[in-house]
User: Which sequence fits this backbone?
């Protein structure tokens, strides 16, 4: 893939419709061998981009899901203590306790977590999902790994990537990620898709969906996003809503169909109450 357009076409073939800005950012990340930092509201396609990149490149996707309290042991490696204990008991039963420690801390007892898996899988796509949920200490550790493409394990020595992974970091911006991490990456903000693009996404993912119904769903969801909701619906919710209508054999999104399927697109009671109070007829007009 020699141009952003060719990358966009490759992503299109695996079901991901990237606009020109996103295709260019992803292309540059590949060419410059830099991590791509994708930030935006939930449901704008950040995680799906990493999956699509892996599919388009024909390479494995390795995902590191960040969460509060995540540390190096959960992200990089750990030792398989139950197996080590069993092995130690077997050595003791054979009277071979001398040098047991050296046998216990070998590669056969090492549990590779996502970061180590990515370093050892040439050319894979590493998705560091929702990095904004991790803390500053983990960000500093991650920055070091991404800069060096290598880790040091005291018992085994240095493990360096033969071919660095393609790295995609995502953030829902629940907090600001440290500037040092952003400086290491190329940055792209993902907006919710426009009406025409969302209709195209719905039709691509749900071929049985008619143009008319896809337009109705996308229009209603766009109006919901303009309202002051706790959790504005993303593309995933649009797809859920369209699937619910198809499952109920509802070819038209009218007030009755919207009322019985609202839980597919709005996941907070307060949001559903607000939309209903404003009038479903107004939403669908």
Assistant:
């Amino acid at each position: 893939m020699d141009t952003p357009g060719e990358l966009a076409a490759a992503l299109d073939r695996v079901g991901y419709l990237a606009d020109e800005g996103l295709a260019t950012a992803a292309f540059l990340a590949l060419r410059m061998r830099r991590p791509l930092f994708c930030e935006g509201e939930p449901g704008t396609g950040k995680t799906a981009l990493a999956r699509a990149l892996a599919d388009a490149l024909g390479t494995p996707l390795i995902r590191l899901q960040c969460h509060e309290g995540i540390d190096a042991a959960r992200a990089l490696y750990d030792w398989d203590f139950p197996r080590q204990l069993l092995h130690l008991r077997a050595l003791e039963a054979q009277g071979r306790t001398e040098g047991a420690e050296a046998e216990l801390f070998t590669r056969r007892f090492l549990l590779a977590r996502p970061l180590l898996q990515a370093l050892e899988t040439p050319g894979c796509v590493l998705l560091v999902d929702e990095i904004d949920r991790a803390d500053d200490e983990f960000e500093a550790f991650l920055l070091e790994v991404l800069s060096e493409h290598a880790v040091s394990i005291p018992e085994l020595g240095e493990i360096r990537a033969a071919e660095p992974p393609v790295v995609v970091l995502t953030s829902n911006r629940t907090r600001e990620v440290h500037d040092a991490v952003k400086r290491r990456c190329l940055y792209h903000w993902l907006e919710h898709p426009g009406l025409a693009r969302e209709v195209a996404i719905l039709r691509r993912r749900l071929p049985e969906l008619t143009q008319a119904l896809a337009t109705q769903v996308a229009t209603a969801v766009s109006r919901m996003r303009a309202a002051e909701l706790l959790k504005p619906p993303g593309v995933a919710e649009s797809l859920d809503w369209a699937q619910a209508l198809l499952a109920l054999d509802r070819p038209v999104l009218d007030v009755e169909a919207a009322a019985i399927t609202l839980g597919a697109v709005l996941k907070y009671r307060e949001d559903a109450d607000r939309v209903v109070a404003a009038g479903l007829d107004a939403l669908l007009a």
Observations:
- Residues 248 and 257 are 9 Å apart (CA to CA).
- The radius of gyration is 23 Å.
- DSSP finds 15 helices and nine strands in the chain.
- The mean pLDDT is 92.
